[in-house]
């Protein structure tokens, strides 16, 4: 069985004032082409399907058209779970119609997929909360999936009985996964995990997270889940949340973040982007390889102290979006800015460290209301407290309040 793993589409996201929807359409079409070329049997989309709880009409349209193409009229199942940027109810809302196309949604950690059977040969063999078993049209062996959409502390307390301590969080997930694995996962099928969470190998350096995800580093602010918490029956763990492709561990199976298909902040500058292809046979570890995506624009960061050098370099960066830091000994003149912007249409200029004489009125910043709400709160707190950032405890209280308001 061959699986395609993709994640963190963040449909509808902007980079400041630049819409990425055309790039997203190009790269999703590329993913569709890869699924066809590789003749994959199923597609996993592991969360952060949209960038906000209330995505734009064009983002929603692109989302469903892409999933329909990936599903190939019900001949190839597409399993998509909610991430921390998604509304679980919105993700699950089209479920009855989606299943007719071979598209399966899971919004909550206790979501249960109702059985269905398509003329293509795709069917749900078995399901319970957090588990799904599928019969695929062109495969003799069933596909078993432990499903773990994003779950903050509020959801875990409500649905899985989790209390407050970090160890209990890890323990309740491990026990739930292991119970399902012992019940359903044997060597007569393909056994995987599809999850949107922060997971790392215990004792290693914590993986780097994208700038926009920092307020939601971990589930509800609790510490990371460890790869040792995963059941030994798994053959592949398909993860979402981190935007850089990375292999977290090889035990008990390949534990993989495929990353986002586009770079969404300049913290991801110069990153290549991928989807993962996992070839799996019953009772054997998955053979995993990456397929690099070519259609999306790269984000680049550079520093210059001379405008002429910057313009020459910019002229060679057509298929990219650039953050340029000018470390000059004077405030950039209008003519110099004009030359820089003329050299590259997708350009952000940051005054350099030597630009200390910038007029006060030019230092004023507009409030970008499209930013993550946690970042906005942190900036507001600092503005009212002489630049002091809120303590971790304050941020945790704020995140819990937001989470409960969303659930209610």
Can you describe what's shown?
It is a single chain. This protein is an alpha/beta fold and about 400 residues long. The chain is built from ten helices and 20 strands. The strands form five sheets. A seven-stranded mixed β-sheet has the order 7-8-9-10-13-15-14, covered by helices on one side. A hairpin with a 2-residue loop joins strand 7 and strand 8. Helix 1 packs parallel to helix 2 (about 55-70) and helix 7 (about 305-315) runs parallel beside helix 8 (about 335-345). The chain starts with a strand and ends with a helix. Residues about 215-220 and about 355-365 have low confidence and may be disordered.
List its salient traits.
408 residues; alpha/beta; seven-stranded mixed β-sheet; six-stranded mixed β-sheet; globular
Strand content: 15-25%
Distance between the termini: 41 Å
* Mean pLDDT, all residues: 86
Roughly what percent helix?
A: 25-40%
**Structure classification:** alpha/beta
- Low-confidence parts lasting 5 or more residues at pLDDT below 50? 214-222, 355-364
The topology string of helices and strands comes to EEEHEHEHHEEEEHHEEEEEEEEEHEHEHH
Which strand order does the major sheet show? 7-8-9-10-13-15-14
Main sheet record: 7 strands, mixed
Rg, alpha carbons: 23 Å
Q: How many distinct beta strands?
A: 20
Q: Count of helical segments?
A: 10
Q: What is the 3D form?
A: globular
